[in-house]
Every structure is written in C-alpha cells, then in structure tokens.
Amino acid sequence: MHYRFGLAFLAAGLASAVAQSGGATVAPVGGYTAAPDQKAPETKAVDEPATFHTRVNLVMVPVVVRDKHDKVIGTLKQEDFRLADRGKPQEIIKFSVETLARPVGYRTSSSDEKFGGTPGTPPLPGEAPPAPMPDRFVAYLFDDVHTSFADLARVRDAAIRHLEGMGPKERAAVYTISGIITQEFTDDHELLSAAIKRILPHPIARAPVGQCPDISYYQADLIVNKNDPMALQAAVAEVMSCQAMDPSMLSAAQSQAQGVAQQRLTEGEQETRVALYTLRALVRRMGTMPGQRMILLASAGFITLFDQQQDKTDILDAAIKANVVIGTLDARGLYTDMPDASRPSSSYTAATLQLKLQYDRDAARAQADVLAEMAAGTGGTFFQNSNDYDEGFKRLAAAPEYVYVLGFTPQNLRNDGSFHGLRVTVKPSNNLTLQARHGYYAPKRVDDPEETARQEIEAALFSREEMQELPIDLHTQFFKVTAESAKLAVLARLNLRQFKYRKADGRNNNVVTMVIGIFDRNGHYLQGVKKVLTLRLKDETLANRLGQGATIRTSFDVPPGAYLVRMVVRDAEGQLMSATNDAVEIPFF
To answer: Model pTM greater than 0.85?
Structure first.
C-alpha cells in the first residue's frame, strides 16, 4: 500500500458536532475571535487545520544506559543526566523513558451502558479467540544501491533465516533503497522471503572497471569540493601513467582528472540523496504503524557530504519523534584494507598507490559513520566488522527495553547549518556505559510552526503510546448492517471542567482538537476524522451543565474485521495532549 499522510484527509470524514452543543462564532484554531454577545452559543465543532504553540529548536537526544553486564538500565531520573552542547551545559527541559510498546488486546465489544447504544455481538460458545493485534513492526531495508552482489547475497540469506522467528504479533516489510523491491507489512513468510530473494544490486552509476582515472566518490569530494592538491595530483599522475602521457601533456591530464572527478561527485551525490530520501520516507511510513517500530538497515554504508548533513539530522529528528528505532548492519562484514585487485597496478606509482589506499581506508570509515550515527541517534544497534550476519540481525532486532529521551533548547542557535557535538553523562557513572546521539546540525531555515504542529499531531496519532495529560475516555460500539458491512461507533468523553481556559468577554475560552484514526490488523491506516472544538463557555455551563463531561460520537462504515481505534486530543490553552487506544473485532457472521 502506498501511503501519503496529511491532516487534510481527516477533514473529509468530519462527522457531527459535539453532543449537547449548539452553533457558535467560528474562531481560528490557536486563537479566538472576540464575541461580546453573551447570547452567542458556547461550542462549535469546525473543520480547521490544527495550529499549536510549540517549542522552537527543541533538540531530542535518545540515550541508552547499560551496566557492566550490558544490561539496559531503566531506573534513572532526569536529575541523573548531564547534557552539554559544544561543551556548554544545557538545561534538560523534556525527559521521558520510552519502553517497549505494550500490546492492546482485542475485545468483541467495548460498549458501556452510560454511553447508551447496542453492545456488539459477543463470541459464540466454543468460538476460537480472535488473532492477537500486532504490536511490533519491523522493516527490513536493503541498500541495493551501494552494496555488492556478494554482500547482498549473504545478508539476504541471513534476513530470511531471521524472519523464521517472527511471532504472531509481529509484522514485517521488505524495502530497498532503489525502491525496485517492495513488500508491505504482512505476516506471510512466503511473501517476505520471495521479495528478499529478488533483491539484486541496482547502482545508479558506477565507473567501468579499468577506467582511467579510477576516482572514488570520496576522492572526487576532495578534488572538487575541498580543493585538495594531493587528491588531484594523485588523479593526474594516474591519467599520465595509464595513458602514457609525457610531461608536456600535464594540462590535458589535469582537465581529464577534474572532469572525471566532477562526474563521480555528481553520481555519488545522487546515490546518497536516494538513500537518504528512501530512509526518510520509510521513517515517515513507520511512524504510521502502532506499537514498537524498527528499521533494520543492511548496507555497505554511504558517504554524506556537508550539504547532506541537515538531511541526516532531519531523519534522526523524525525517527525520534515517531519512536522509530533504526538498527544498522554493515553488509561488508569483516573487511580489511587490502588493495583493490580490480585496479591495474601498473597505473600507479608507489606513492600514488599508497595515497589511493589511504583514501579507500578513509572512505570505508566514512561509509560506516552514517550507519553508526543512525543507530546511536535513535537507540538502535550498529553491527559491523563481522561475517556472522545471523547474529547481526538478532542484535539489531533486540531493541533496548528502555530508552531515555532528553530534550533541550539551544540558546542563541544560529541557522548556519554548523555541527554541534553533544555529550551526555550520568551520575553516578560507575560501571555504566552510554549510547547517545553524537550531535546535530543547526538548521539552515526557520521552522514553520504550522508544519511542526502538523507533524506533532501526526506522530501522536500513529503512535500507540498512551498519554494522559487531559481527562478523556474512549469507547467503541458496533452493529452489523449487513453480512458485509457494519457501523463502528466511537464515543469520546471529555471532562471539559478540568481543561484550562482563558477568560475573555465573560467566557471561558479554549480550542480543542480531536483526531480519531482507524487501523487494520496489520497496522495500516484506513480512515479518520478530525474535529476542532471552539469553546466559549459561560461560568454556569462550565460549573453545572457539563456534569461529568461532554460526549462526542463519531461513526465509521467498515466491513467485518479486526480494528484498532486511536484517539488524540490536544488543547490550545494548556498545550496538553492525551492519546488512547481501543481494539475491536467485528465478526464476519
């Protein structure tokens, strides 16, 4: 299933207004329209884009802490951590401990007498219990652009063996960097294995074997972007040697070397852009899945240049916000710094050959760096320098039980794209090891608050994390219309008396945004609605008429089957959010 998400789709399914409320003057979300008329109705449900006040430049830092026995520690508090940005201590203003997602069990009916309505059909005597709702989603991402056939073949076989251990509450998917092979989330082992077996290398561009000069992407960056005279001299010497040029042809050799370097740079940049784009899209895709979400990336690594550093930061930020853990496996396995046998040694002088070998070593480390960053920055594992790929996938899939997420706002941050190194320590630090995000790149642009808010709502909707900052309850009911169709009713109760309000014009003002999404048994988003409630409540209404709260009813037309219902509520005045889940199975008979 190809997936695109935006809050606009929610507006299409906007249902009825708040029960017990009338019409009102519509206020823009995140603000209010003055209406001194005390006879004006007090509530209104409207369809509006959601805009919230959000912290600007909030940097999130996942941290995994292990003891001397390599056991993950989950008992530390905010005051135990120290965080420094470029050596300067920072105030930790946001702190949470993420744990493995707990499953949400099925039930055939979640009706409640106080909500009214007809309860769902209970299971028949002797009927088999419904299949468990999946609570773990693992995406196997193969880098078929940068990885050789031999390395791909080994990691493919290991991945297929690893899939044999997939449990009944797990779903897996297969993706490739090139996008040529795709198998969406399923529990069908045969489909997954068949997709993996079809994966082959698909480089965007590669220099022909024996081409002169043989310039790598790493060396091309040194020549074109960094104006490294040694790198250019090595390429020129290679041209003159392999084409038997005399010293009078130095200028022509230099032009040829620079031309090939520019070509390699363009090709390498495109391959890296494709890799980052695919990874960013998959993080976004994974953010739509409930429960625990992991990406297992098998790659030979790829080099990211300065202009691509912000893209890496954006991927890490998106993964952290969506609770997506990225585990990385270096598909090169156990490798050495031996010379490339495909290179014609006669094309190099001894000095040039040594320089080329040094570039190869530096490039190999740079390729591994991006894999290490993605793992460390999201709480995942980086497995490298080993041919035991079975053990590699095993370690990657074993997400840490606890991940601390520290948030801070850099002071006087310049939008210059510069790198900021981070250092995290704990007290006491005896016999403890930390895995944390190494740093971040300052933005080159000012974030759009509306876009930031949209992403915040999206992340909350597609997470299964329970949040209880606002007093809400979620209940579901269903009744069969025909053998092939049913009505799924979602009833939300909001205790509005406990919300925060801004007093103006004799009214209690707030804007509440509620989003409800329906997901199938494999965690795929099906449909949803969004309601924006503009509240201008009189004192007597808030104190007396609301009673135990307001009930909002929304219905969906669905076929029989198993569903997860997710509700997110956010208010503008208190800037608080709650989110809750409910699972229901509508029988086919």
So the answer is: no
